[in-house]
């Protein structure tokens, strides 16, 4: 069976690298900010293939960092340099720089920097297979991070530490500790709000639940949790494509999902395997291409389509050959799977060829690993155990070769097996006869069981009849109780309706009384206003016809007097005539105020304009504005509105000492808006209630009669604005 090994390669997107480069250049005049970004920039350069530039950036900034009073940045940069040298298998340089990081960590007060040194130390120990020491170093790093002040990088560095611990405990099958640190990794990644860390955390959680599911295949909960976290990882990647540093993350998650679906949902397994294949082909990630082909081959084997499976494995092998990073485990798995497929197809010669290639590859890997481990671990290398492993593999190889030889022998012995099958067939005939005897015995037992079943059915039928009778009685009682409750509810409903009806009648009666009071009030007010206007008209006519005529006659008589009299008498007559002219003019003004004839002849606009012109003088300027006014309201309403405006203007003249008054009338669809503004001395609304004055009472009565509203706005030493809204229908 093909074994899938998935890994995440840190292939940085070019736009992210460009952004970091710009940010690094922009901080060239700010040493602290440049030192802060240098570690991330150098790491990204390293994993993007610019190793020499990465080392140059680190060396340059380390030179600046060592001159700082605090050893924070020197600690971090030396740690990054040590990890890079370890990746390049330069262990002497790695150890030297890690020691320098330790020395500067003793000179800093930054717990975050101290924690980062411990993280780097644990990271290198992990890759040197010193797992116990690595765990101890990671735990020290966690203590420093927990006691550190929050910075922009703290949660990210903290998250990477617990991620390493989670991976270690996963390899040690310590599932409780793995779960603890996996969940902590997800929490810290969320706090850092870095989509790359969040993606890794979702993948870590998904892998943890996937391992639990493989341990307990009947526990669907673990499988569903693994599926949900892998899907969250894919969603995170798709939402943050620009910010994702690792282009292979999408194919990485798709491969894990496809591998999970293999056992229970073939269609989804194919979907995600094909997604991983297309994405990895686009990115040129040979390991992921090979892995996706391997999953597709596994699915083809399930369908017994061995030719298709073999073609997928061969494609995977070609992709592994192209990769600059060799994964020997995948190559060994492919060769073993090809050998198994050849056995299934009966091509034992080809199977033996693939298996010999598998053994040769394993020997080469073993020799190379032995050489690498010898260089890395020197005296700590356990030669005896590795030799035993190699001997065991050789024995297994010989055993496999013997098995293949036996298969060839078995192939030659098939004819003998065929002859043996004839003997087996005769034996089966004898067994068939024996089975027939057993069948007759079982038929008798079935007939007996049938009689017993019929008896039980009769008992059940009788019992059902009894139950049906009881149910019928119970239904009768239940029906009677329901009818009783329905009657009670109907009576209560009828009573409630009667009460509501009586309350409604009372409310209607009260409303009728209120309506009558309003009608009475309106009739009284109408009669009062009509009486006032009639009385005003009568007074105006009496003054004009009576007193006006008398004054005119007196003036005429005076003008006929002999002007040849003495000069004093002449001057007295002229003065008397002038006084009579003034009295006649004042009489006309009073009569006009009592009954404006322009209003009845030409309408409200002309009457108001004439009133404003008449009331204006050198010390007072009254302006009028008519907006969309159509003169469509009735003559009675026009008279009332004229009286209201007349009273408000007179009040402004008498009490406000205004120098300017504005009368504005605008007509909307169903409303007449009237505004009277003055620049007088105003008044304090809290100290003076204008509604208690007699003049304003008359104004308010007229506004109520017109079913309008009035709003007064006044400020001391600024002026007063009175707004009226009157329906015009």
Overview of this structure, please?
With 729 residues, the protein is mainly α. Among the domains are: 453-595; 599-727, 2-Layer Sandwich (Heat Shock Protein 90), CATH 3.30.565.10. The protein has 24 helices and five strands. It has a five-stranded mixed beta sheet, covered by helices on one side. The relative contact order is 0.03.
Summed up, what is this model?
With 729 residues, the protein is mainly alpha-helical.
List the helices and strands and how they pair.
Blueprint: H1 14-26, H2 31-47, H3 51-65, H4 72-87, H5 91-105, H6 111-127, H7 131-146, H8 154-171, H9 175-192, H10 195-215, H11 220-239, H12 249-261, H13 266-283, H14 286-302, H15 306-322, H16 328-344, H17 348-377, H18 383-412, H19 414-560, H20 567-594, H21 597-602, H22 604-615, E1 621-627, H23 635-656, E2 660-667, E3 671-678, H24 694-705, E4 709-715, E5 719-727
Parallel strand pairs: 1-2
Antiparallel strand pairs: 2-3, 3-5, 4-5
Helix pairs in contact: 1-2, 2-3, 2-4, 3-4, 4-5, 4-6, 5-6, 6-7, 6-8, 7-8, 8-9, 8-10, 9-10, 10-11, 10-12, 11-12, 12-13, 12-14, 13-14, 14-15, 15-16, 16-17, 17-18, 19-20, 22-23, 23-24
Order of helices and strands: HHHHHHHHHHHHHHHHHHHHHHEHEEHEE
The general outline is flat
- Global mean pLDDT: 79
Low-confidence stretches: 1-13, 369-381
Which percent bin holds the helix content? Answer: over 70%
How much of the sequence lies in strands comes to 5-15%
Structural class: mainly alpha
Largest sheet: 5 strands, mixed
What strand line-up does the widest sheet have? 1-2-3-5-4
Got a strand count?
5
- Our measurement of the CA-to-CA distance between the termini, rounded to an integer number of angstroms, reads 93 Å
Rg value: 54 Å
- How many helical stretches? 24
């Amino acid at each position: 069976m093909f074994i899938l090994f998935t890994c995440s390669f840190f292939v940085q997107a070019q736009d992210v690298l460009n952004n970091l480069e710009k940010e690094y250049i922009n901080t060239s005049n700010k040493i602290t900010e440049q030192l802060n970004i240098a570690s991330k920039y150098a790491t990204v350069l390293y994993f993007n293939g610019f190793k020499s530039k990465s080392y140059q950036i680190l060396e340059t900034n380390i030179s600046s960092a060592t001159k700082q009073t605090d050893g924070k940045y020197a600690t971090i940069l030396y740690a990054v340099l040590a990890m890079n040298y370890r990746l390049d298998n330069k262990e002497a340089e790695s150890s030297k720089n890690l020691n320098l990081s330790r020395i500067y960590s003793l000179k800093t007060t930054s717990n975050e920097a101290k924690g980062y040194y411990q993280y780097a130390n644990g990271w290198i120990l992990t890759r040197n297979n010193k797992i116990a020491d690595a765990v101890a170093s990671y735990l020290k790093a966690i203590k420093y991070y927990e006691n550190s002040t929050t910075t922009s990088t703290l949660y990210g560095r903290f998250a990477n530490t617990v991620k390493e611990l989670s991976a270690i405990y996963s390899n040690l099958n310590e599932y409780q500790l793995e779960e603890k640190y996996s969940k902590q990794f997800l929490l810290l990644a969320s706090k850092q709000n870095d989509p790359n860390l969040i993606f890794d955390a979702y993948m870590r959680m998904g892998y943890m639940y996937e391992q639990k599911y493989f341990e307990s295949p009947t526990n669907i909960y673990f499988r569903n949790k693994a599926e949900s976290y892998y899907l969250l990882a894919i969603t995170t990647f798709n939402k943050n494509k620009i910010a994702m540093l690792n282009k292979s993350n999408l194919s990485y998650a798709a491969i894990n999902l496809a591998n999970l679906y293999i056992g229970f949902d073939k269609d989804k397994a194919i979907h995600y395997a094909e997604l991983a294949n297309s994405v990895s082909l686009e990115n040129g990630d040979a390991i992921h291409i090979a892995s996706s082909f391997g999953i597709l081959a596994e699915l083809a084997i399930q369908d017994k389509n061995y030719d298709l499976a073999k073609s997928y494995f061969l494609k995977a092998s070609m992709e592994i050959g192209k990769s600059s990073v060799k994964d020997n485990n995948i190559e060994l798995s492919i060769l073993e799977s090809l050998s198994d497929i050849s056995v299934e197809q009966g091509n034992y010669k080809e199977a033996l060829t693939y298996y010999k290639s598998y053994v040769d590859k394993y020997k080469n890997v073993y020799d190379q690993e032995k050489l690498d481990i010898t260089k890395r671990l020197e005296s700590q290398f356990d030669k005896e155990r590795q030799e035993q492993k190699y001997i065991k593999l050789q024995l297994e190889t010989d055993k496999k070769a013997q098995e293949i030889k036996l298969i060839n022998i078995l192939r030659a012995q098939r004819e003998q097996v065929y002859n043996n099958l004839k003997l087996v067939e005769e034996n089966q005939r004898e067994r068939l006869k024996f089975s027939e005897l057993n069948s007759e015995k079982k038929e008798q037992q079935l007939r007996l069981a049938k009689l017993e079943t019929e008896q039980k059915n009769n008992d059940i039928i009788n019992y059902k009849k009894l139950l049906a009778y009881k149910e019928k009685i119970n239904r009768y009682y239940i029906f009677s109780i329901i009818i009783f409750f329905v009657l009670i509810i109907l009576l209560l409903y009828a009573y409630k309706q009667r009460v509501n009806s009586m309350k409604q009648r009372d409310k209607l009666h009260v409303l009728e009384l209120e309506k009558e009071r309003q009608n009475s009030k309106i009739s009284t007010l109408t009669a009062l206003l009509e009486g006032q206007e009639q009385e005003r008209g009568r007074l105006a006519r009496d003054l004009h016809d009576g007193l006006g005529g008398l004054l005119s006659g007196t003036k005429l008589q005076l003008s006929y007097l002999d002007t040849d009299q003495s000069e004093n008498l002449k001057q007295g007559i002229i003065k008397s005539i002038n006084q009579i002219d003034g009295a006649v003019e004042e009489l006309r003004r009073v009569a006009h105020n009592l009954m404006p004839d322009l209003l009845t002849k030409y309408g409200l606009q002309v009457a108001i304009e004439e009133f404003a012109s008449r009331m204006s003088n050198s010390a007072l300027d009254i302006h009028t504005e008519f907006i969309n006014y159509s003169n469509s309201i009735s003559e009675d309403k026009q008279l009332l509105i004229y009286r209201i405006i007349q009273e408000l203007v007179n009040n402004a003249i008498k009490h406000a000492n205004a120098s300017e008054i504005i009368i504005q009338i605008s007509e909307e669809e169903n409303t007449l808006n009237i505004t009277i503004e003055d620049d007088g001395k105003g008044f304090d609304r809290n100290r003076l209630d204008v509604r208690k004055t007699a003049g304003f009472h008359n104004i308010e009565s007229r506004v109520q009669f017109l079913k309008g509203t009035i709003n007064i706005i006044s400020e001391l030493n600024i002026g007063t604005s009175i707004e009226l809204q009157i329906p015009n229908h």
